[in-house]
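[step 3/7] fold_predict: job queued, chain A
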Amino acid sequence: MGWKLTRRAAASATLAAAVAVVPLILPQKGAGTPSASASSWETVAAQRPAGDEPPPPRLPRNFRGKGKWIVRDLGITVPFRWQGRNGDSQMIAGGPQYPIWFTNLIHRGSLYTLTYKWPGLTEHSCSRIPGFDLRQLNEILASGRFVGKETLERGRPRRVNHWRVGIVVPERPPGNFLRFPLALGDIYVDRNDPGTFWQVLQFGVQNLYDPELDEWLVMDTFTHKTGKVTLPPQCARA
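[step 4/7] structure written:
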């Protein structure tokens, strides 16, 4: 999901993720052998308080979707693709003909980000965070807080469940303590399927390149069909 602490990657995810739009210092949330197993997500989800809450978001192993990446304070909207294959996943926003062009990947147990183009950016190296996979992303999503049922009115109305995922440091008990919200993600998944993502707002330090620290991904399509994930040569050397 376009998250970029250690340039962009550290969460994309929210999300984004996210939408995902995670992405954040996510490895701190779960270490261990990379795995795309669903068991950890199920464990975290089962530990949620009982009530009328729907199941939390869960990025599937295989999917493909298209939409838009929106940076409102810059007045920039570019095409966006998000695909998953066997637990790996890739976001691509923009392209060589657009003012914004980047890719984020979860690939073989590592989180990568490579920003080809961004206004005012001169550094274009690929960043890699090892020890992060689909299982750990879904654990973070499963720990989110349910906001409520909503209807998105972008073109075709979509009935969604709105969730909020956040990372705040340092960890402190309730009370008057200094703490900082590193990243927040508002995640909107289909009301009938928590594995279908329709919209993600990412806000926080992970959006370091944007002056207002917020970016949107909005999906026009999202299907549970196997997508394509390609690690760029620059990231293979990271």
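[step 5/7] annotate
The domain at 5-236 is CATH 2.50.20 (outer membrane lipoprotein receptor (LolB), chain A).
The chain has a mean pLDDT of 84.
exit 0
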